[in-house]
Amino acid sequence: SSTSFSYTVTTVGNYTYGCIxxxxxxxxxxxxxxxxxxxxxxxxxxxxxxxxxxxxxxxFSEESTDYFSIRKSADGxxxxxxxxxxxAGNSTLKRSYQFxxxxxxxxxxxxxxxxxxxxxxxxESFSVIKxxxxxxxxxxALIVALSPNPISRPGQMQLKFNADKAGEMDVSxxxxxxxxxxxxxxxxxxxxxxxxxxxxxxxxxxxxxxxRLAGKKEVKKVVVL
Length: 225
Fold this sequence. Notes:
By secondary structure, the protein is mainly beta. The chain has strands at residues 13-18, 28-33, 39-49, 52-63, 65-73, 80-86, 90-91, 95-101, 110-119, 124-126, 130-133, 143-147, 156-163, 167-174, 180-188, 191-198, 205-213, 216-224. Strands 5, 6, 9, 10 and 11 form a five-stranded antiparallel β-sheet that branches. Strands 3, 4, 7 and 8 form a four-stranded antiparallel β-sheet that branches.
């Protein structure tokens, strides 16, 4: 019932967290806990240069580091390696590195990057995650995905939507007669967002859902079975 809580992780490993019952629908996050960190990261920046993503990062110290694994994600959760750079090995000086991602694709409006240092014993140390606005996307869609559609009662629709800044998305549901039958708000954060919409109280039929966020408006037609 509280709005926040704290928990101290004391054992090295990978952890997943989320809320019930939304956990089963992918609304979850991951915590990666290392022991003694082989690298102390400094500034990490991602900039758009000539339709490419230029990654620049610093380290303040390195201990037995082998290489840096540059990883990318389209949803901020599932990352994959797109390149490697050799590390210094052992250093107590500030060092600078950079990597250019030339394959931004033409589907994801937002991309996510992280730098993972790997030492000679395969221990990993993670940077913060940076969100990058992909300038190669010409269609500025608000709603990226909406499913299932049609949907059976009772149930909930899962949606993904883009937000250029933090705020709240207004969601209004109208029946075939143009009557407002449901209105709610969804928290929006910069980047790709996930949300859900319950249809438990809606009668069978066809509905128009109007989404409004930061001056943008999109209408989606949904069938409830």
